[in-house]
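Regression test case RT-17, inverse folding.

Input:
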């Protein structure tokens, strides 16, 4: 395997910010897929990971990356757990939504993720991180209400956050982030396939362009950028910077889907953006 120089701190922050922007287009894309693909959330998650794996396989081939099988064989447990983290992150979040609603699921999953990462990396939980979680909570405060299984919903959201934290911590300091992301996606898709097949895994023909985009931008590109950025910045910092994702998703919701943000949500967006900028400046 060829060793590659880690990016500078400034470039690492840029990569993570771009990853957050790419992730921010994933929510609207997923919403469109729910409407037009004929798939349930598990099948959409499967196609997302499989699509990401296929795009990254092409990228690895074009960029002349080393033997993928050899890299997997060097640390199989790392990539199996990374794929499991990706699968759990997807399944936990989508399963929590009908139980406690989009707003609470998002706050817990995205808010607890950076906290779990900081604890797992043995990094200090800073006031900026807590400010980011507060801003996130205010941002989604105007969303629709919850379902009828709050305890299960909270547990599933925390499970999603744990999956995100697991794959983030396992992909720190990777010499080849592209291949690492590919192996995680391929493993995650393999884990999700049996579950996806129980509800039907064949998408509507008209949804293929959306699935291709879903696999490329908010998946392959986003995670490749995020894992590359993790080589230069602390994991907890990367998790806070990546919270650009809900900010962009909210903006797209307003512009493309004519969603309305309350005054409290706008305050939350400002607080979250301030926390992201403060965390970047501290790095």
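Golden output:
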């Amino acid at each position: 395997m060829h060793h590659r120089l880690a990016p500078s701190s400034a470039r690492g922050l840029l990569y993570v910010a771009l990853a957050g922007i790419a992730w921010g287009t994933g929510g609207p894309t997923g919403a469109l897929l729910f409407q037009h693909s004929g798939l349930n959330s598990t099948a959409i998650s499967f196609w997302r990971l499989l699509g990401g794996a296929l795009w990254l396989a092409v990228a690895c081939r074009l960029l002349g990356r080393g033997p993928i099988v050899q890299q997997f064989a060097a640390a199989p447990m790392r990539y199996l757990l990374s794929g499991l983290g990706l699968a759990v992150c997807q399944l936990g979040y989508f399963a929590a939504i009908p139980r406690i609603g989009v707003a609470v699921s998002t706050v817990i999953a995205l808010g607890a993720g950076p906290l779990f990462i900081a604890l797992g990396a043995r990094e200090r939980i800073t006031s900026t991180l807590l400010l980011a979680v507060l801003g996130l909570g205010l941002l989604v405060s105007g969303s629709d209400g919850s379902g009828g299984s709050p305890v299960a919903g909270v547990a599933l959201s925390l499970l999603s956050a744990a999956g995100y934290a697991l794959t983030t911590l396992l992909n720190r300091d990777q010499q080849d982030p592209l291949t690492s992301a590919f192996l995680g996606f391929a493993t995650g898709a393999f884990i999700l396939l049996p579950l996806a097949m129980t509800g039907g895994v064949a998408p509507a023909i008209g949804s293929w362009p959306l699935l291709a985009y879903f696999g490329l931008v908010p998946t392959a590109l986003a995670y490749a950028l995020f894992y590359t950025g993790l080589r230069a910045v602390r994991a907890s910092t990367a998790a806070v910077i990546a919270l650009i994702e809900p900010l962009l998703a909210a903006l797209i919701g307003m512009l493309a889907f004519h969603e309305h943000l309350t005054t409290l949500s706008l305050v939350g967006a400002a607080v979250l953006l301030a926390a992201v900028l403060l965390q970047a400046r501290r790095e």
